[in-house]
Design a protein that fits this description.
Layout lengths: L3 H9 L9 E5 L10 H13 L4 E4 L32 H9 L6 E8 L5 H14 L4 E6 L4 H7 L6 H17 L3 E4 L4 E5 L13 E5 L2 H10 L2 E4 L4 H17 L8 E5 L4 H9 L4 E5 L5 H14 L5
Parallel strand pairs: 1-2, 1-10, 2-3, 3-4, 4-7, 7-8, 8-9, 9-10
Antiparallel strand pairs: 5-6
Helix pairs in contact: 1-8, 3-4, 4-6, 7-8
């Protein structure tokens, strides 16, 4: 086996081998009325009917009109999710569309874990997983907006440590009939949280992020890894860190599913397949359901059905 940068290069350039890849889609924030219940239902039914495996929604509890925090996924440092972009609560939105869909998985991409009470989050996620028939995917992140954390009254500096601990809290409550936990931030003894998730092992946790810390977190805790906004060479490094972290934790690195963002074309899907992604997620490019149906029908024929 070749290690080091040359090994990463050869791995990235391995021959394309097509396999069953899953495709997810992000709701049309900023271009469609995602806060309208009728639109949300129609959109969810449409993408389920067109063969998408998962539907992804984002989270910001509040957005500051002015902020000094640097958005890490654009060279400008500014987020496309401005204060004007409507962002319904992701779990409530997913519960709404869960009632009118049957197969599509319901994913947060990503929910900002350190801004939430982990016991309440455990109950919300378990309830949604039960009510949806075991379809929730909990994509998580630590957050990048210092001003948002300040408005919520939570510590921005220790958000990584708290996220790790909160994951352990979630898993403890989902796993144990009578649960106890003693951590740095959370402590409880012999409590019961019911219902527990329908999915065996609890709700899958997909760790999002672009940093080495996110890669380590995915290796130690994640059912999946969702590295955002990274080039191929950077991705190779993060995946190596993820695998090393998983091995150190006594976990099977190959069991951690890779989810990558993509463009709505075959070339992007093929690139993600070469990089080892089990899932490609694209963004809805229109808030007009008629136009969107036409574009996604073509994507289904030219891309989804090929994989």
């Amino acid at each position: 086996m070749v290690s080091g940068p040359l090994g990463h290069f050869r791995w990235l350039c391995a021959p394309l081998t097509l396999r069953r890849v899953k495709f997810g889609i992000i709701a049309p924030y900023g271009i469609g009325p995602v806060e309208d219940g009728r639109f949300a239902v129609a959109f969810a039914k449409l993408v389920e009917d067109l063969g998408f495996e998962s539907l992804w929604v984002v989270e910001h509890v509040v957005m500051s009109v002015e902020y000094s925090s640097v958005y890490p996924y654009d060279p400008s440092g500014r987020s496309p999710f401005t204060a004007e972009v409507v962002q319904p609560d992701p779990l409530i939105w997913l519960a709404h569309v869960a009632a009118v869909t049957e197969r599509i998985r319901l994913a947060t991409g990503v929910l900002i874990v350190p801004q939430r009470n982990p016991l309440i989050l455990a109950k919300e996620c378990a309830s949604l997983d039960r009510l949806s028939g075991g379809r929730l995917e909990l994509g998580i992140g630590v957050g990048w907006v210092r001003e948002e954390a300040a408005a919520l009254g939570v510590n921005f500096e220790d958000r990584g440590r708290r996220t790790d601990e909160y994951i352990e809290v979630l898993r403890t409550l989902w796993r144990e009939p009578v649960a106890s936990f003693h951590g740095e931030h959370v402590r409880f003894d012999r409590v019961v949280s019911r219902p527990q998730p329908l999915q065996e092992g609890g709700v899958p946790i997909v760790v999002g992020g672009h940093s080495k810390a996110a890669a380590r977190r995915a290796g130690k805790y994640g059912n999946g890894f969702y590295p955002l906004g990274v080039a191929d060479d950077r991705l190779a490094l993060l995946l190596e860190i993820m695998r090393e972290s998983a091995a150190t934790a006594g976990r099977d690195p190959s069991a951690i599913e890779l989810t990558l963002l993509g463009m709505p074309d075959a070339a992007s899907a093929e690139r993600n397949d070469r990089l080892g992604a089990g899932r490609t997620v694209i963004a809805a490019k229109s808030g007009d359901l008629g136009l969107l149906h036409k574009d996604l029908e073509r994507y289904r024929r030219e891309v989804i059905e090929r994989f």
